[in-house]
Sequence to fold (415 residues):
Amino acid sequence: MKNISKCRGCQSDRIVSFFDLGDQPLANKLIPDIRANESKFPLALYWCPQCQLVQLGYTVEPEELFSQYIWVTATSSTAKEYAEIFCNTVLQHADLKNDSYVMEIASNDGTFLKPFINKGLNVLGVDPARNIVEKAISNGIPTKCAFFSEITATEVVSDRGEPQVIFARNVLPHVANTHSFLSGIRKCMSMDTLLIIEVHYAKIILEELHYDSIYHEHLCYFSLQSLKNLLDLYGIHLYHLEKSPISGGSIVCLARLTQLQESSSLLQYVEQEEQCQTNSLESWKKFSENAHKHKDLFIDLLNNEVKNGKRIVGYGASARSSTMLNFCNITKNQIQLIADQNPMKHDLLTPGTNIPIQSPETVFSSHPDIVVILAWNFLEEICQYLYHTLHFDGKIFIPLPYPPKLLAIREVIHE
Fold:
């Protein structure tokens, strides 16, 4: 673990701490039993007055976080559906030639490359998690197992030439060596290359209180302005922006080495950030205050239902749920079990809070009264599954966006 002293973006040494979530375990480090030794690391947010980048003040070694991974993109039907939309968006902005190829950085199991293959295009994935890379290759997705950097970029260009499209979805915030990563992207770009970067949008994190998206893998929390400031250092120019449903609200930013006219969509986002003071320290201090208010309210609501004899389970042993459960000190006395569709998580315990994770079928065979939707960013998808497949007709607890809500599931599903 490393304590940073300079901004991850502009290298300013004047970064300011504003939100301490305490020492927490690694969000994706599920444990086999309560006897397992767990390491905990500081989790605190800082703000840079020079480039307005919100960031973690500590770095856990990337090898410890990503060399083995348990999030598989194809687990989410929302992600699979969006992959088709994303592919069509790319093809609207890039006239791909027969001898060119599309490269995804942090390609996971290749879900987002699959639509390009289905259209007869060449692809290459790059991802550091060997277990996930093996899954991608077995599914017919050419994938290089590596952390993306200047060295990796040199190897890729030497082997395949410059890609005509590069996309990096929700990976730039994860990168410990931001500048080696962006230098590598720059090395892979020709004047014809389209670069697409998707990030969980800081303005939405701020306004909807997505504090559960803060964990050790997410080192940076980008607004449009802080992302522009960073890319400008590499002569990479943003010219268009679109919305994405992933992570509860992300932005998809299109860029080239050529400086194109900025789209009305991008200019609108710039203006909105200025009006809402998205990039000010005072706004983020208020975010910290509201997170502590949410913690108190969340605990009180859960404890009240437990006192009333309600059996409560959770759905979605996501990384973001780990932050919330640990920040709020939730245990299996409040949430007895957590259901998750990913078999890699079954029969393990949540980090720090030791709540058992089982298959949805196993969890719902016990007929719970209330389900806490921990993966609330997939609320609609999960509720449809609970109601139509698992025949759950009780109440659901939606912890975020703020304030938390307790509703009958029929109030949420849309027939």
Remarks:
- The chain has two domains: 73-279, 309-411.
- The chain has a mean pLDDT of 93.
- The CA atoms of residues 104 and 142 lie 11 Å apart.
